[in-house]
Design goal:
six-stranded antiparallel sheet, 15 helices, globular
């Protein structure tokens, strides 16, 4: 009798777990059928679905994120695209494949970086000339005037990692009226949120603070996003077009990436925009449809450090362009030489794994156990990508022809939720697909 009771309990728990997975994964059976042989590579669908379901279900249960979606392309074809969970923990709005996400720092490699690569192609930028050749304010700062674009993009320049500009826009929790207002006017034309409008003077202040920021004398790896705040103005200066318009006409529209862009609230999408954080400091409400990053928000939502929104499918298209060294659907957007230079580790002798703008595997990644690796230990050394603070991660591997897109809103309801990192979810999911094709 005791044995029967144990078996029945086991069957009940297995059934409950299976039902939980079924409730959290929003299955598209046509995708299950597609996850089969692609150009000589066979995906073990049973293994992949079992492992992915297990990892993401645990993430939702332990509040790493309320919902997520995962898209994987092999040899240029989507072989896996599934959604899990909901936009919020109240389980009202299920995650959909068409959802638009705040990409956070993934913006860095999907907005300013393709523009900078194009400008290098055209000879308008030289990676090894001082950045002050193009960004003139740096000419009067001895610590900055000789820094090259290569050093800056590889995070080898010694620049300050981050400045919290929100502290300059608020005083005792209230708006400083010379920078922020609750109604739009000629003096406050930039919209940061539904009822928050910013003076252009604030961008001038941001640029001044970036220009005057500290530089470490030691030349070693020090991640910094500061120059991504000035890259949009540099790109506009060199192209003669507004930064966001240049990206649309040069890359996003020709690629068919219709959801990639800034300030999606202006664009009347039918797609749902996934919420991020319940902001208690600045917006005092749930942030949805407007950029989560405060620095990008105070620049009117159009920036180089954050601010881009998009779907998993559109991100996969852009990452495949990089994976194909500048080609997509028979059209060349960037030269192979330039793309290969940007995705290459620049300063390995300084224990710096970074490419130019792109993140890269840890230098000894293939020798590390899964819990210490970044990204998957079986990702090739030629692979590259970037992560985002809101819970996003994109990676491309030219050697294995594998594009991996993971999107979540881990900052809901608060950025204090860190189990996405603690549980190593993105790396674990990434590794599943290397093992699933073996």
């Amino acid at each position: 009798m005791k044995k029967i009771t144990i078996i029945l309990i086991g069957l009940f728990c297995l059934g409950a777990y299976s039902q939980e997975v079924a409730d959290l994964r929003h299955v598209d059976n046509s995708m299950t059928e597609e996850a089969n042989p692609v150009s000589g590579s066979t995906l073990d669908s049973t293994y992949v679905f079992s492992r992915v379901d297990s990892i993401i279900t645990r993430g939702i249960r332990e509040q790493a994120f309320p919902g997520a979606q995962l898209l994987v392309a092999k040899n240029g074809e989507t072989v896996f695209h599934q959604t899990y969970g909901f936009h919020t923990y109240d389980s009202i709005k299920a995650v959909a494949k068409s959802d638009i996400y705040d990409l956070a720092s993934v913006t860095k490699i999907t907005a300013p970086l393709p523009a900078l690569m194009k400008l290098v192609d055209e000879g308008k930028l030289d990676l090894d000339k001082p950045f002050s050749t193009y960004w003139k304010p740096w000419r009067k700062y001895p610590s900055k005037k000789e820094l090259t674009l290569r050093e800056i993009l590889a995070h080898q320049a010694g620049l300050e990692p981050y400045i919290i500009f929100l502290n300059k826009a608020l005083k005792k929790g209230r708006f400083k009226k010379r920078f922020l207002r609750t109604t739009q006017s000629d003096r406050f034309p930039l919209q940061a949120y539904e009822n928050i409008f910013v003076s252009p003077r604030f961008k001038n202040k941001v640029h001044r603070m970036v220009n005057r920021s500290e530089v470490k004398s030691a030349k070693k790896y020090r991640y910094s996003g500061l120059t991504f705040l000035v890259f949009p103005d540099l790109i506009s200066q060199l192209t003669g077009m507004p930064y966001d318009q240049y990206l649309q006409t040069t890359f996003y529209a020709p690629l068919g990436c219709n959801t990639l862009g800034f300030n999606p609230e202006y664009r009347n999408f039918e797609n749902t925009i996934v919420p991020t954080e319940i902001d208690t400091l600045y917006r005092k409400t749930l942030t949805q449809g407007w950029v989560h990053d405060e620095n990008a928000s105070l620049l009117g939502g159009v920036s180089g450090n954050a601010g881009l929104f998009g779907t998993a499918e559109d991100l996969a298209t852009l990452m495949q362009l990089y994976q194909n060294y500048g080609m997509y659907d028979g059209k060349r957007y960037l030269s192979e030489k330039t793309v290969q230079e940007f995705i290459k580790v620049q300063f390995p002798e300084n224990d710096n794994r970074r490419g130019l703008g792109f993140d890269k595997p840890l230098l000894n990644n293939s020798n590390l156990p899964l819990e210490e690796a970044y990204p998957a230990p079986e990702a090739s050394k030629d692979s590259f990508g970037h992560s985002g603070f809101t819970g996003t991660f994109v990676w491309a591997d030219p050697e294995n022809q594998l594009v991996f897109i993971f999107l979540s809103n881990r900052v809901y309801p608060s950025r204090t939720h860190r189990n996405l990192y603690e549980l190593n979810i993105r790396t674990a999911l990434h590794q599943v697909f290397y093992q699933g094709f073996q």
